[in-house]
Amino acid sequence: MTLRLVRVDDRLIHGQVVAVWLRAVGADRIVIVDDRVAADPFLVDVLTLAAPIGVPVEVLDVASAAPRVTARASAHDACFVLVKSPVTALALLRAGVPIGAVNLGGIGAGPGRRPLYRTISASDEERAALREIEALGTPVEIRIVADDRPVPFASVDRT
Question: Has 76 been annotated as catalytic?
Answer without folding.
Answer: no
